[in-house]
Amino acid sequence: MKKLVYAFIILLAIAHQDFWWWDNSDTLVLGFVPIGLAYHAGVSVLAGVAWALAIRYCWPLDVDADQPAASGQGGSPA
Fold this sequence. Notes:
Elements: H1 2-15, E1 28-29, E2 33-34, H2 35-58
Antiparallel strand pairs: 1-2
């Protein structure tokens, strides 16, 4: 699953470079949103999905484990 998440992130990075909508200011989505802005809104939503998948499937499990405090460090000041 990690490889699919990484591939999805790479695909989003490539899709982010949307040179094909730059010159099209006449096409509106929902009657008021320029197509380039709507495209980037969609890419942003997909980026959120990608990062949620990355956290779910690629995050190392031992990162959030509680670490015992070393003696003499941490705690409240005296």
